[in-house]
Amino acid sequence: MAEKNECVVKVPLFTWFAGYHRSWLRGDMIAGVTVWAVLVPEALAYAQIAGVSPVVGLYAAPGALILYAAFGSSRHLVTGPMAATAALSAAAVGELAAGGSDAFVQLTITLALVVGILALAAGVLRLGFLASFISEPVLKGFVIGLALTIMVGQLPKLFGIEKSEGAFFQQLWGLLGDLGDTSGPTLVVGVLSLLLVVGLKRYLPVVPGALVAVLLGILAVNLFDLDGHGVAIVGHIESGLPSFGLPDVAAHSYLDLSALAVGVMLIGFAEGLGAAKTYAAKNHYEIDANRELIGLGAANLASGLSSGMVVNGSLSKTAVNGSAGARSQFSSLVVAALAVVTLLFLTGLFEDLPEATLAAIVVAALIELVDIEALIHLYRFHTRGAGRAYALAARPDFAAAGAALLGVLVFDTVPGLFIGIAVSLLLLLYRASRPHIAVLGRDSAASGRWSDIQRDPVNERVPGVVVLRPESGLFFANADAVRDAIRAHAAVKGTKAVVLDAETVPSIDVTAVSMLVELAGDLRRDGIELVLARDVAAVRGLVQLGEGDTPLRTYPTVRAAIAALEK
Length: 567
What we know:
By secondary structure, the protein is mainly alpha-helical. Helix 4 (83-94) runs antiparallel to helix 10 (252-283). Mean pLDDT is 84; it is low at 1-9 and 383-394. It starts with a helix and ends with a helix. The longest helix is centred in the middle third of the chain and has 32 residues, at 252-283. The strands form 2 sheets. Strands 4-3-5-6-7-8 form a 6-stranded mixed beta sheet. The protein has a two-stranded antiparallel ribbon with strand order 1-2. It is built from 21 helices and 8 strands.
C-alpha cells in the first residue's frame, strides 16, 4: 500500500494562498481592477491580430487567469492573449484555413488546446530547461521582427485602407501603394488614439491609457457619427458566456497543428517565464520553470475549452499588476471575475469602438518591443574593453539576433521562429567547439597564483614554458580546436614545454583523451613536453586510463608541473 502511495503525483494548487495575509487584500483588489482596465481593450485588439472576432480574446481570459493562478509558481504573472502568440496563431492557422471563415475560428481554438496539451506534457516531463535553448539575442531579434510585422499589419487600419497579404516587406509595399486611398477621418482617429495612449503611458503611467482611448473612441463615434463618415468600428460583439467544450474540427487537425504549436508554446513560455522571473527577483521568491509550463498548459486548455485563443504570460500586464500593488494571484482572480462581468453585461459598450483605436492600442504596445538599442548594444559590446575572447562571443550573438529578425521579416513569423531556434542551436555548438584558451602568467605579488595574462598583463611568464587553461570541458566537438591552439603556442620559437591547466575543465571524453595522448607524443618527438596540471580527479583519471606508454604526465598543480619541468 505504501508503494502505491509513492506513485501518486502531488500537484500543488494555489500555493500562494497558504501564506496569504489580510493586509494584501486591498493591494490585490486595486491591482485586479487596474489590470482589468488594460486587459479588456488589449484582449479585443489581440484577438483581431489572431484573425478572429474580438470577443474571442475576452473568452480566453477568465479560465486562463484562474487556471494559471491554480498551477503557476509566480505570484505576479498575468496570463492572457498576447500580440506575439496571437500573430503566430494567425500564421499557423492561416496555413490550414482561410481567414474569416468558421474553420479559421475553430482551428484557432484548437491551437490553444494543442499548445495546452504540449505545455502540460512538457511540464510533467520536467522539460522546463528547454527554454534555455532559445538564447536571449535570438529571442530579442525574433520579437523585434514579430513586432514590426504586426505593426505593419495594423497600419492599414490606422489609414483606413485594405491590408496586403504576405510577410513584412510585401505588406509594407502594399501599404505604400495604397496610401492614396487613405480615409481622413480614420487617420485622425487612429493618430489621436495613438498619441493619447503613448502620451498617458509616458506622462501619467498610473492612468490606463488603453481604456481611456477606448472610451473616448466610443464616445466620439456616438457624438460625431464617425461610422457614417467611413470610420470602421468593431461591430456586433456577442454577449454572454462562451460555449464550453471541444471545437468542431476533425481529429487530424490536432496533429496538423502540433508542429507549429511547439513554436507557439516555446515563444509563449519564454515570454511568460521572463516576466515571472523579473518580478520574482524583485520580490525575493523563486520560480519553478516546470510549474510555469504546467500553468501555461492549464491556462491554454481552459482557454480552448471556453472558445478562446492562445494565451501566455504578459510582461506588460504583469508590470501593471506589480506597480498597482499586487502581492499574490488573488489579483488575477479579481481580473477573471471582472472579465466575466464584462462578457455578461458590457460587450455592447465596445461595439462602437473604432478599429483604428484598436490598431493604435496594438501599435503602442508593440513600440516598446522594437528594442533597437539592444541590437546596438550587441553590436558594440566588443568595443568595451572586455577582451578579444568576449568580443568574439558578442559577434555571434549579434549575428543570431539579426538572423532571427531578418527571418521573420523576409520569411514571415513561423519560418522566422524556426530560423531563430536553429541559430540558437548553431550558436551553442559554435561556442562549445571554440573554447577560450587562456595563456597564464604567474603573479609576482602572490606566489603560486596563475591567471590570464590578457586580464593581468603584468604577470610573469616562465621562459620556455607556456601555461594554457581551456575554459571549457574537453570533448569531441572542441578537441580539434584545443589541439590546434596547443600546437600554435608550442610552435613559438623557444618553447620547450606546454602545461595544460585543467582547473576549469570539468569533464573530458575519450576523443579528447586520445587527442591529448597523441599530441603529447607528437610534441615529444619535436622536443617539446606536454603535461597536465591540477588534481581534477575525473579529468586525471580518464587521462591516465588512456595514457598507455605515451609521455603525457599529470601534476597536482601548475607550480608542481613547472618545478618538474625545470629539473
